[in-house]
Amino acid sequence: MVCTATFGPSQQHLQPEKPLHVRSHLAGSLRNRVQCVAIARTHSGKQDCRKRQKACVLCAASNGAEPAASVAATNGAVASLPQAQRPRPQYIPNRIDDPNYVRIFDTTLRDGEQSPGATLTSAEKLEIAKQLAKLRVDIIEAGFPVASPDDFDAVRRIAMDVGNARDPDGYVPVICGLSRTKLRDVEVAWDAVRLAERPRVHTFLATSPIHMEYKLRMTEDQVLENAVAAVKHLRKLGCQDIEFSPEDASRSEPRFLCRVLSEVIKAGATTVNIPDTTGWALPHEFGDLIAGLRKNTEGAENVIFSAHCQNDLGMATANTLAAAEAGARQLECTINGIGERAGNTSLEEVVMAIALRGDGLMNGLWTGVQPVHIAHTSRMVQDYTGMAIQPHKAIVGANAFAHESGIHQDGMLKSRQTYEIMVPETIGLTRADEAGIVLGKHSGRHALKTRLVQLGYALKEDQVSDVFKRFKDVADKKKLISDEDLLALVTDEVHQAQVIYELIDLQVMCGSLGMPTASVKMQGPDGVVRTASGMGTGPVDASYKAIDTLVNIPVELVDYSVQSVTEGIEALAVTRISLRPIGKLASEGFTVNAQGRTSQRTFSGSGADEDIVVASARAYVSGLNKLVAFMKTPKVSAAEKELQRMQASKPLTEQAASPVAV
């Protein structure tokens, strides 16, 4: 017989006649989603497990090894069947056949990029989108296409590439573009995503009294008319998957919300998203709002209800989970919780909360996300956006699985379950090498590549070669190379913008006597190696002035930070900077966000080296490369020209007759 355990107020395990080891876990890689349930008898060795050809957590423990991964525990007992083992329901825009399945809508590339300084290039957006597909999110909101030609191209590239990369099991993410209810917005958004296998357009309009009076200067009837017109126009264009959001819903009148939602559902919306735009709501009232709208909105049974929460009061994750319990079956999140102001709901927090507590306390809720890719995705977003993760950030922070208290350490040595509700391997972190490999100056390329794979980085051969070259340089100066060092080198060699200018050599002279000076040798886009010198208030400033002489693009340094990767005098330094163009180029890189505000792009860069000044110079060159790559992009792309031609060919009467607000 198979033994099971129940978790009630007493949290007691059911005990059969003999003592049992009962553990439901993920054996091997979480990607394979294999479950092994111990047979209800005293575990007497590896024979039973070999018969099933599956690795058993008990056998691993008997050898002193930790299981490859496990799912969360309640009072020491690992949770029941892994949720992601269930087949994902067939995607139908306006319904989910499994009432407990929750769609995860990632808006890192759209709302997350609205974080100050979080500018991403088109190539970086594509790489993040590919990683989100590995994570198996249901919907990727790829951007706000009308913001700029570069944004349009980025969304279209993602739609054509990631949006058509169907896995053997049938998974392919929905690719979504955001638009206001303006006629041109919805047309541009649809044209950007329409080549995806599953395209969606997400259109929005504010419904709160304060927004209607001061921002829109529109009446309730005008707002309703514009919302319905946008949805109908999308249907006319051929879009069958339409999401509508009443912006600032948590401060809107429930009566008017129900009226707007009912009408957009009649017009053809398939998902209605309820945003807590200013982070105003508390969990109980936001849950009540979702429940009330589902109960009182005509046609609510024909659409998916969604939740989008900001984190201004630190309630985003709590509000999102409250919405899920109240019936929302799409949850909108960003990686690392990045976003405007205090950020958005953190995807990793919501996904792991549902994974650990969904069965027991949330009436069986589950998602299709593969959490083993969370750590790598988090690191990629941090590197590309230049937005560092706070050490005590839940799930992905550096301290999330660290234990310094003596009492905690004692408990962890006796059982990891005393102070950990999940193991780091669950999200793709592996901090111990079972083969006993220690990386140092004598380590070879194969050992490095093996460790990178264990850390979740399946790099191309040329990328491995680049990292290995830097690895050998650092290993010559440092006895042992830690995982943190490797991750810093991956960031510096792989997660970088297109190399246009390359730093070859740097020499500085500084001290208490004389003016700090720096000499740099760089290779430019023409392949020619040039040298220049500069003087400044310090060695970093002098280095930057020398680099400016060679690149010859006037920029302003907006932010600069440096931190050590590990402890000790030999530690690698990681520098992060952000900059923006000034002077004649100050007008470059302006973009329009979803709220209609125009802002200038900033460009981030990062660099790692055992020398702080060299790390700073590498970061500066990285930021300049990102800026130059953006400026080299044609201001009017081929796709934008097509849109202009399409709009120019419309009858003037059709353009003028649209009831959508301008």
TrEMBL record:
Its EC number is 2.3.3.13. Gene3D superfamilies: 1.10.238.260, 3.30.160.270, Aldolase class I. CDD domains: DRE_TIM_IPMS. Keywords: Amino-acid biosynthesis, Branched-chain amino acid biosynthesis, Leucine biosynthesis, Metal-binding, Transferase. SUPFAM superfamilies: 2-isopropylmalate synthase LeuA, allosteric (dimerisation) domain (SSF110921), Aldolase (SSF51569). PROSITE patterns: AIPM_HOMOCIT_SYNTH_1, PYR_CT. Pathway: Amino-acid biosynthesis; L-leucine biosynthesis; L-leucine from 3-methyl-2-oxobutanoate: step 1/4. GO terms for biological process: L-leucine biosynthetic process. GO terms for molecular function: 2-isopropylmalate synthase activity; metal ion binding; methylthioalkylmalate synthase activity. The keyword Transferase applies. InterPro entries: 2-IPM_HCS-like, 2-isopropylmalate_synth_dimer, AIPM/Hcit_synth_CS, Aldolase_TIM, LeuA/HCS_post-cat, LeuA_allosteric_dom_sf, LeuA_bact_synth, PYR_CT. It catalyses: 3-methyl-2-oxobutanoate + acetyl-CoA + H2O = (2S)-2-isopropylmalate + CoA + H(+). It comes from the Eukaryota. Residues 102-375 form the Pyruvate carboxyltransferase domain. It is an enzyme of class 2 (transferase). Belongs to the alpha-IPM synthase/homocitrate synthase family. LeuA type 1 subfamily. This is 2-isopropylmalate synthase. It comes from Apatococcus fuscideae.
